[in-house]
Specification:
The complex is a heterodimer of chains A (113) and B (109). Helix content of chain A is 0%, strand content 49%. Chain A is an all-beta fold. Helix content of chain B is 0%, strand content 43%. Classes of the chains: A mainly beta (113), B mainly beta (109). The A-B interface holds A 3, 31, 33, 40-45, 48, 50, 55-56, 59, 91, 98, 101-107 and B 4, 9, 43-46, 49, 86, 88, 95-102.
Chain lengths: 113, 109
Protein backbone atom coordinates (compact mmCIF):
# COMPACT_ATOMS: atom_id res chain seq x y z
CA UNK A 1 0.00 0.00 0.00
CA UNK A 2 0.87 3.65 -0.21
CA UNK A 3 1.27 4.08 3.53
CA UNK A 4 1.22 2.31 6.87
CA UNK A 5 -2.26 1.04 7.59
CA UNK A 6 -3.56 0.35 11.10
CA UNK A 7 -6.82 -1.35 11.97
CA UNK A 8 -9.10 -0.79 13.69
CA UNK A 9 -8.87 2.97 13.97
CA UNK A 10 -10.83 2.83 17.23
CA UNK A 11 -11.37 0.00 19.68
CA UNK A 12 -13.43 0.05 22.85
CA UNK A 13 -13.11 -2.98 25.07
CA UNK A 14 -14.04 -4.01 28.58
CA UNK A 15 -11.47 -4.39 31.31
CA UNK A 16 -10.09 -7.91 31.32
CA UNK A 17 -10.72 -8.62 27.64
CA UNK A 18 -8.17 -9.55 24.99
CA UNK A 19 -7.49 -7.26 22.02
CA UNK A 20 -5.49 -7.45 18.82
CA UNK A 21 -4.27 -4.42 16.90
CA UNK A 22 -3.08 -4.80 13.32
CA UNK A 23 -0.39 -2.97 11.37
CA UNK A 24 0.19 -3.30 7.63
CA UNK A 25 3.51 -1.60 6.81
CA UNK A 26 4.72 -0.13 3.55
CA UNK A 27 5.58 -2.93 1.13
CA UNK A 28 9.26 -3.77 1.27
CA UNK A 29 9.91 -2.08 4.60
CA UNK A 30 11.86 -4.54 6.71
CA UNK A 31 11.76 -2.60 9.97
CA UNK A 32 8.51 -2.23 11.93
CA UNK A 33 7.95 -0.42 15.21
CA UNK A 34 5.12 -0.19 17.73
CA UNK A 35 4.74 2.84 19.95
CA UNK A 36 2.11 3.83 22.52
CA UNK A 37 0.98 7.40 23.07
CA UNK A 38 -0.93 8.28 26.20
CA UNK A 39 -2.84 11.55 26.54
CA UNK A 40 -0.50 14.51 26.81
CA UNK A 41 2.61 12.44 26.22
CA UNK A 42 4.92 11.74 23.32
CA UNK A 43 5.03 8.31 21.72
CA UNK A 44 6.74 5.64 23.84
CA UNK A 45 8.61 2.77 22.23
CA UNK A 46 7.19 -0.72 22.69
CA UNK A 47 8.84 -3.14 20.25
CA UNK A 48 10.91 -3.25 17.05
CA UNK A 49 10.92 -5.96 14.38
CA UNK A 50 13.58 -6.49 11.77
CA UNK A 51 12.00 -8.92 9.36
CA UNK A 52 10.10 -11.60 11.25
CA UNK A 53 12.00 -11.38 14.51
CA UNK A 54 11.49 -9.06 17.44
CA UNK A 55 14.91 -7.43 17.56
CA UNK A 56 14.09 -5.28 20.59
CA UNK A 57 11.08 -5.74 22.87
CA UNK A 58 12.47 -3.78 25.78
CA UNK A 59 9.60 -1.28 25.71
CA UNK A 60 6.81 -3.76 26.32
CA UNK A 61 5.44 -2.79 29.77
CA UNK A 62 4.68 -6.31 31.02
CA UNK A 63 3.91 -9.84 29.86
CA UNK A 64 0.32 -8.97 28.97
CA UNK A 65 1.70 -7.35 25.83
CA UNK A 66 2.95 -9.41 22.92
CA UNK A 67 3.54 -8.75 19.23
CA UNK A 68 4.17 -10.94 16.21
CA UNK A 69 5.19 -10.48 12.60
CA UNK A 70 5.14 -14.04 11.25
CA UNK A 71 5.82 -13.33 7.57
CA UNK A 72 7.89 -10.20 7.91
CA UNK A 73 5.09 -7.93 6.77
CA UNK A 74 1.86 -7.49 8.76
CA UNK A 75 2.27 -7.25 12.52
CA UNK A 76 -0.25 -7.79 15.31
CA UNK A 77 0.04 -6.31 18.78
CA UNK A 78 -1.80 -8.44 21.32
CA UNK A 79 -2.88 -7.28 24.76
CA UNK A 80 -4.25 -9.78 27.27
CA UNK A 81 -6.40 -8.98 30.31
CA UNK A 82 -6.66 -5.33 29.36
CA UNK A 83 -6.58 -2.69 32.07
CA UNK A 84 -7.88 0.88 32.05
CA UNK A 85 -4.29 2.10 32.06
CA UNK A 86 -3.77 0.47 28.66
CA UNK A 87 -6.02 3.12 27.10
CA UNK A 88 -3.90 5.04 24.60
CA UNK A 89 -3.23 5.52 20.91
CA UNK A 90 -1.10 2.67 19.59
CA UNK A 91 1.10 3.76 16.70
CA UNK A 92 2.86 1.60 14.17
CA UNK A 93 5.72 2.78 11.98
CA UNK A 94 7.83 1.15 9.31
CA UNK A 95 11.10 1.98 7.59
CA UNK A 96 13.45 0.53 5.01
CA UNK A 97 15.80 -0.35 7.84
CA UNK A 98 17.78 1.08 10.70
CA UNK A 99 19.08 4.50 9.77
CA UNK A 100 16.13 5.33 7.54
CA UNK A 101 13.27 7.60 8.54
CA UNK A 102 10.01 6.22 9.87
CA UNK A 103 6.59 6.36 8.23
CA UNK A 104 3.88 6.30 10.86
CA UNK A 105 0.37 4.94 10.60
CA UNK A 106 -2.62 6.91 11.84
CA UNK A 107 -2.86 4.80 14.98
CA UNK A 108 -5.44 2.74 16.84
CA UNK A 109 -7.19 4.49 19.69
CA UNK A 110 -7.78 1.87 22.38
CA UNK A 111 -10.22 2.63 25.18
CA UNK A 112 -10.59 0.19 28.04
CA UNK A 113 -13.79 0.72 30.04
CA UNK B 1 19.51 7.46 30.84
CA UNK B 2 18.20 9.44 27.94
CA UNK B 3 15.74 12.26 28.27
CA UNK B 4 14.14 14.74 25.88
CA UNK B 5 12.62 17.87 27.38
CA UNK B 6 10.26 20.20 25.59
CA UNK B 7 9.55 22.84 28.22
CA UNK B 8 6.58 24.48 26.49
CA UNK B 9 3.37 22.50 26.18
CA UNK B 10 1.70 25.39 24.35
CA UNK B 11 3.18 28.17 22.23
CA UNK B 12 1.28 30.91 20.42
CA UNK B 13 2.79 33.36 17.98
CA UNK B 14 1.37 35.82 15.48
CA UNK B 15 1.61 35.17 11.77
CA UNK B 16 4.85 36.57 10.42
CA UNK B 17 6.59 36.51 13.80
CA UNK B 18 9.65 34.34 14.47
CA UNK B 19 9.06 31.07 16.23
CA UNK B 20 11.38 28.89 18.31
CA UNK B 21 10.33 25.56 19.79
CA UNK B 22 12.75 24.46 22.47
CA UNK B 23 14.19 20.98 22.87
CA UNK B 24 16.85 19.94 25.35
CA UNK B 25 18.20 16.45 25.67
CA UNK B 26 20.21 14.33 28.03
CA UNK B 27 22.32 11.53 26.60
CA UNK B 28 25.83 10.38 27.39
CA UNK B 29 26.87 9.45 23.84
CA UNK B 30 26.37 10.97 20.39
CA UNK B 31 22.66 11.04 19.65
CA UNK B 32 20.76 11.64 16.48
CA UNK B 33 18.03 14.28 16.88
CA UNK B 34 14.79 14.68 14.99
CA UNK B 35 11.73 16.90 14.84
CA UNK B 36 8.39 15.26 14.06
CA UNK B 37 5.17 17.16 13.34
CA UNK B 38 1.51 16.21 13.56
CA UNK B 39 -0.97 18.47 11.78
CA UNK B 40 -4.64 18.34 12.74
CA UNK B 41 -6.23 15.01 11.76
CA UNK B 42 -3.00 13.80 10.14
CA UNK B 43 -0.45 11.24 11.13
CA UNK B 44 2.89 11.92 12.75
CA UNK B 45 5.53 12.72 10.15
CA UNK B 46 9.21 13.54 10.06
CA UNK B 47 9.98 17.25 9.69
CA UNK B 48 13.76 17.21 9.82
CA UNK B 49 16.78 15.44 11.26
CA UNK B 50 19.99 17.05 12.41
CA UNK B 51 22.32 14.99 10.23
CA UNK B 52 20.60 16.29 7.10
CA UNK B 53 21.24 19.92 7.99
CA UNK B 54 18.38 20.92 5.73
CA UNK B 55 15.54 23.41 5.89
CA UNK B 56 12.04 22.00 5.57
CA UNK B 57 9.03 24.31 5.18
CA UNK B 58 11.29 27.14 6.31
CA UNK B 59 12.19 25.38 9.58
CA UNK B 60 15.77 24.77 10.69
CA UNK B 61 17.28 23.17 13.76
CA UNK B 62 20.90 23.16 14.86
CA UNK B 63 22.32 20.60 17.24
CA UNK B 64 24.18 22.39 20.02
CA UNK B 65 26.17 19.74 21.86
CA UNK B 66 27.48 22.23 24.42
CA UNK B 67 24.00 23.22 25.49
CA UNK B 68 22.51 19.78 24.61
CA UNK B 69 19.79 21.52 22.65
CA UNK B 70 18.08 21.07 19.30
CA UNK B 71 15.71 24.03 19.07
CA UNK B 72 13.42 24.33 16.04
CA UNK B 73 13.27 27.77 14.44
CA UNK B 74 11.43 29.57 11.69
CA UNK B 75 11.89 33.29 10.96
CA UNK B 76 8.31 33.98 9.83
CA UNK B 77 5.50 31.77 11.12
CA UNK B 78 2.60 30.86 8.84
CA UNK B 79 -0.92 29.78 9.83
CA UNK B 80 -0.32 26.35 8.30
CA UNK B 81 2.51 25.79 10.79
CA UNK B 82 -0.06 25.31 13.56
CA UNK B 83 0.48 21.73 14.72
CA UNK B 84 1.91 19.52 17.43
CA UNK B 85 5.71 19.28 17.33
CA UNK B 86 7.74 16.50 18.91
CA UNK B 87 11.48 16.43 19.42
CA UNK B 88 12.98 12.92 19.36
CA UNK B 89 16.34 11.34 20.09
CA UNK B 90 17.93 8.17 18.80
CA UNK B 91 20.86 6.87 20.76
CA UNK B 92 23.96 5.57 19.04
CA UNK B 93 23.39 1.94 18.12
CA UNK B 94 19.74 2.14 19.13
CA UNK B 95 16.85 1.12 16.95
CA UNK B 96 14.09 3.24 18.47
CA UNK B 97 13.28 6.89 19.03
CA UNK B 98 12.78 8.56 22.40
CA UNK B 99 10.22 11.37 22.15
CA UNK B 100 9.60 14.50 24.16
CA UNK B 101 6.11 15.38 25.36
CA UNK B 102 5.49 17.77 22.49
CA UNK B 103 4.69 21.44 21.98
CA UNK B 104 1.43 22.60 20.45
CA UNK B 105 2.14 25.59 18.22
CA UNK B 106 -0.69 27.94 17.34
CA UNK B 107 -0.08 30.65 14.77
CA UNK B 108 -2.56 33.48 15.22
CA UNK B 109 -3.71 35.17 12.00
Amino acid sequence: GAGVSQTPSNKVTEKGKYVELRCDPISGHTALYWYRQSLGQGPEFLIYFQGTGAADDSGLPNDRFFAVRPEGSVSTLKIQRTERGDSAVYLCASSEGVGYGYTFGSGTRLTVV
Amino acid sequence: AQRVTQPEKLLSVFKGAPVELKCNYSYSGSPELFWYVQYSRQRLQLLLRHISRESIKGFTADLNKGETSFHLKKPFAQEEDSAMYYCALKGSGANNLFFGTGTRLTVIP
